Amino acid sequence: MNAVQLPLLDPPLKGFLRWAYTLSITSAHEETIPWYYSNFIQLSCTKRFLEDGRQFFLDFFRGKPNELNFNNPFLLTCSVNYTIMENLALGDWPQFIANQIQSGYYCVVFVDEARLSPSAAYQQEPFPHHLFIYGFDLDDRVFHVSMFDRTGVYRNLRVSFEEFQDAVQSMRHLLREKLTADHHTYFYKYEPHSPYPFDKTAAIDQLRDYLNGETHLNRINYNPDEGEAFGIKVYDYLQMYYNAVQQGDSRLGYRVDVRHLHVLWEHKKMMSERIDYLIKQGMIPYDEELVEGYNDITKRALKLRDQYIRHEMREDQEIYERLRLRFDQFREEEPVLLQKLITMLER
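RESULT FIELD:
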């Protein structure tokens, strides 16, 4: 076959591509929905981003390793590095990737995105990044890919074989000169799982962890990371971060101010959608306080993100007072609603 596109859907979470890539595969399959709503409850963030000069991260937390590393029960995963593929000639890469797609594997290839014309990093400094490839056309010599484009919108695009080879060659150079680390290339095949009903026990467990600001996932294999805050405690560090932004603190590392607010909104949206799912499935009764309470938090989180986007285009120092107000409100309102949800699930 000269052209193949594997099935995928627009992913429900896009704050970080580890979610966008894997969920765009699994969301195309109805049987994964109960698993999806059993998860994506906990949040984590960086604590010592000022003292250590680290980048501040806020993200969903599903334990370790992260979602690219064998963490999704519906995906058969193969991981390889550039050392393993060292003897693959540059001109053979397009056919190699096409062969994997033809075998049913989605490809997440570690490349230098600065060599890809649809990317915001195009022709700038090297930008090592994972590229999601779900299809190819040998006649047109293009791959079908999903990525953030120049405008910051996540969408499906086409990348020529020539640009792809250039991005691979540039990554080989960066690795050879030790200018970056190899974050591996992944191949995913969707495999139907045994029945996976909504896991009430896991959901309650994560909700409690969120309320207590802690995690006990993976403690058999990983010591708790003292450099991370969890659950309700992330608001303290979000506030610390935006205080530092307002004050122009020189210790701040690479900044992605809007993404933190986007992930915060995705978390509230996810919680609100989960409540609707549980009601429709008859697992909890309709409760106006719970439904409307989380819908309202979700709307305020989205408005806050959009206000910050406008602030970045046209400076508005009042945004920092709005951030403080909303973080305080969410920190006060969420525990009441989540405790109600836990009680309803336990019944």
